[in-house]
Amino acid sequence: MSISRSTKAILSLLALLAFGFIYVPLIVILVNSFSTNRSLTWPPSGFTTEWWGRAVDSEGVRDALLTSVLVASAATAVALILGILVSLVIARYRFFGRESISLLIVLPISLPGIVTGIALNNVFTSYLGGLTFLTLVVAHATFCIVVVYNNALARLRRLGGNVEEASADLGAGGWTTFRLVTFPLMKSAIVAGGLLAFGLSFDEIIVTTFTAGPGITTLPIWIYQNLFRPNQAPIVNVVAAALILVSIIPIYVAQRFSSDTNKGGGIL
Amino acid sequence: MTTTTATHRGYWYRHPNLRLAGLLSAPMAWLVVVYLGSLAALFITAFWQVDDFTGQLVRTFTLENFQNVFTTPAYLSTVARTVGIALLVTVLCLIIALPLSFFMARVASARWQPLLIAMVLTPLWASYLVKVYAWRAMLQPESGVLAWLIGPLGLDSPGYGFIGIVITLTYLWLPYMILPVYAGFTRLPNSMLDASSDLGAKGWRTFQSVVLPMIFPSVVAGSIFTFSLSLGDYITAQIVGGKLQMLGNVVQQTYVSNLPFAAAVSTIPVVIVLLYLYAVRRSGALENL
């Protein structure tokens, strides 16, 4: 299809506007974190690095960061094991109910977070003795499985079964083949999936609100608690800005590690 | 190598079903017991009641929670408002995503495409809460960024409310629409577009009659995300919604005092999402997720 020059110009302009819409709010947060204004008032009346220093010194922020990292690491570890197991099954076996399993894995992120949140909250508090650190990890792992699964499955599909058959022909059993052939070939996809799972858990707020034990404050929970406190606004700005900068890392690494980026338009 | 391990391996090799069961048992136990079990428990709770005097759960079957939702005008208007917001957000995402994805897939040079995709992906992985917070700064009446931008034109920021929620949710879910639509555009075969123009169709006609029908499944795939994610959201309404409530806010406010009622309300978005998935299953969208 030949696209006329004027159409191209209009499309470029619309694309520019769309990218403006996407990036202006993020830039505003970055700029606000250096603003001397104590509220969200725009434009900033001056610039300072004072808030960044205060945020680094803030015990609340440091504790919340540590909690978030611990939760995300534990949830990612569980999601890695479960996600890899399911991806092996879906990629290498044909059986009754296979389609329902892929649906079941996507369900925790397709249903509204609040539904997942109160469903788990109900079971944990009514039947399993209350919310703890562990319940939070269980909840996070549940919706993190899908990203590991999707990345691992895309890689397994691309690899095909030939190398594994060759390995079996040479006398290797199932576990040896997995350890020496399949796993090394999957490794970069697993790293990408694990990073995305970590990011997903690190950012999550809704399910977290309903499944975190009393006193467990992750970074998003900390932001949420301080969002409406006027005197905390500058620190919240800094934490928000830092999170925007940090979120670039998993994208970058995942893009480098995973050559399966084009999985038919899949998002996860 | 000892014979025992060899027979052991042979045993697993000869019994693929056992191998399958071994691989599947842990993940299925987790997803079915922890997740589906919780959902089922919640769904059953929706048919229970809370005793008005003691505040205790009464575990007898009743439809009262659902009757309460569907006969109270305030709840009905919240349902209508929530569905309206979700539809509006989906349409807005589509209006922004179509030209942008077309530009990325068909106008921009191949060298720039990975960068453009990364530029769409980066905000997707930026913290959800940070993005909502960013729009709080954008929308703040009188002294926000939007007020500053359009103030010279004699306009004021829409402030916190319906428009604020719609803009913020559009912002949040936009990448979920862009990525499948972009992928749909890149999959379009050039030969088909050439055939259309050989048959005399101008650019717009080709777009209407060839391109749009072919990317329809991708559009539906994107809309599943934008629609269902908007339907269940409540944090956005809390931060940029002013006094306006969505279904999620009702659930969040009632789940401590009246879990059965909250459970009944929360089945509404789930049922709407499932109906939507059922309605679009023939479009081929589910393979594009």
General description of the model:
The complex is a heterodimer of chains A (268) and B (289). With 268 residues, chain A is mainly alpha-helical. Chain A has a single domain, classed as MetI-like (MetI-like fold, Orthogonal Bundle), CATH 1.10.3720.10. Helices cover 75% and strands 0% of the residues of chain A. Chain A contains eleven helices and no strands. Residues 261-268 of chain A have low confidence and may be disordered. Chain B is an all-alpha fold. Chain B has two domains: 3-45, no CATH class; 73-288, MetI-like fold (Orthogonal Bundle). Chain B contains 13 helices and two strands. Chain B has helices spanning 3-14, 16-45, 64-71, 73-107, 113-125, 128-139, 145-150, 162-187, 190-198, 203-231, 235-240, 247-254, 259-280; strands spanning 49-50, 57-58. Chain B has a two-stranded antiparallel sheet with strand order 1-2. In chain B, helix 8 (162-187) packs across helix 10. The radius of gyration of chain B is 25 Å and the shape is globular. Chains A and B meet through helix 1, helix 3, helix 4, helix 5 and helix 6 of A and helix 1, helix 2, helix 4, helix 5 and helix 6 of B. Chain B: Residues 79-280 form the ABC transmembrane type-1 domain. Chain B: The chain crosses the membrane at residues 20-48, 83-103, 115-139, 159-185, 206-227, 259-279.
Topology:
The complex is a heterodimer of chains A (268) and B (289).
Chain A: H1 5-32, H2 50-57, H3 59-92, H4 98-110, H5 113-127, H6 133-159, H7 162-169, H8 174-203, H9 206-211, H10 219-226, H11 233-257
Helix pairs in contact in A: 1-11, 2-11, 3-6, 3-8, 3-10, 4-6, 6-8, 7-8, 8-11
Chain B: H1 3-14, H2 16-45, E1 49-50, E2 57-58, H3 64-71, H4 73-107, H5 113-125, H6 128-139, H7 145-150, H8 162-187, H9 190-198, H10 203-231, H11 235-240, H12 247-254, H13 259-280
Antiparallel strand pairs in B: 1-2
Helix pairs in contact in B: 3-13, 4-8, 4-10, 5-8, 6-8, 8-10, 9-10, 10-13, 12-13
